[in-house]
Design brief:
Helices cover 84% and strands 0% of the residues. The chain contains four helices and no strands. The radius of gyration is 17 Å and the shape is flat.
């Protein structure tokens, strides 16, 4: 898949995810819904954030930082976007359950940073 095709399909998927998030926000009442409504909200939010961060991360890496390998920039930006989206959704989930504290957020950030460093070391060993 070419970089233009990736950006096109990722943009379309992100727009679809954003529309689905808007539909979920407009139609589901959080005080009267069950686990299905919340899972639809969090999954649509995750997909929207991951898509937006992935596109922005790729543009920053490829256009501004002038990385030569576009496929590497795609992989790194998508991985980091998914980690960031998961962190945001986890923090919002903790907040909704009344379990939010700065210590929990700090532990999540440390855990995701360790996971990112582990994945970086794996990709570095493969190249």
């Amino acid at each position: 898949m070419s970089l233009k095709a990736y950006l096109f399909f990722m943009s379309v998927a992100t727009i679809i995810a954003a529309f689905s998030l808007a539909i979920v926000l407009a139609t589901i009442d959080p005080s009267a819904t069950n686990w299905l409504g919340f899972s639809l909200f969090y999954s649509a939010l995750f997909l929207t954030i991951a898509g937006v961060f992935s596109i922005i991360g790729f543009i920053i890496r490829f256009a501004i930082l002038h990385q030569r390998l576009g496929t590497r920039a795609v992989v790194v930006s998508f991985r980091q976007a998914c980690l960031a989206a998961f962190l945001i959704v986890a923090v919002l989930l903790l907040l909704s359950q009344g379990l939010f504290s700065w210590l929990n957020v700090l532990l999540l950030i440390i855990g995701f940073s360790a996971l990112e460093f582990f994945l970086l070391s794996l990709s570095f060993n493969n190249h």
